[in-house]
């Protein structure tokens, strides 16, 4: 007797488990098997395809935040959108500036990052670097031509926020590059 046959007749096809002549029940099971198998193959092929894992830019943002210069270079070689804006309008340059990663900032600028691209509330890479007291990042941005007197939607400038936060080295760097001290915020406050 065949082990895979309940009726004692040999298996009639590669997936016919009961052998003998097909019945409606056997035929239905065969269809269920093939549809399930096809669904599984399609699902796995989609999940494992490169398109399913296409970089949506998040990797660039994380690498900018952590200062992972090698990852930044590898991602930029894959032609990710260097100026893609994420939550609240942050870009990789904005995040690297916020975190104080000057080598990443320079690499992004060298690859064409838009230096004065504002986030949703109008803050730029220079503004956020000034707010956080990252003097080397501020200097790198200024050396590459960042607009020193751009204002946020609330009217704040890089000089205003640096002075508010007490970052004297940043304030001095901004003044040395010609930042205007009399640019008022929406509330009429100046640096």
Describe the structure.
Residues 1-6, 8-16 and 50-54 have low confidence and may be disordered. This protein is mostly helical and 191 residues long. The longest helix is centred in the N-terminal third of the chain and has 25 residues, at 24-48. It is elongated. The termini are far apart. The protein has helices at residues 24-48, 58-66, 69-77, 92-99, 102-110, 125-131, 135-143, 158-165, 168-176.
Give a brief outline of the structure:
The chain has nine helices and no strands.
**CA(first)-CA(last) distance:** 94 Å
Helix and strand content put the structural class at mainly alpha
Largest sheet features: none
Topology, number of strands: 0
Instruction: Name the helicity range.
Output: 40-55%
- The whole-number mean of residue pLDDT values reads 82
The radius of gyration over CA amounts to: 30 Å
Distinct helical segment count: 9
Shape: elongated
Strand percentage lies at under 5%
Low-pLDDT stretches: 1-6, 8-16, 50-54
Order of helices and strands: HHHHHHHHH
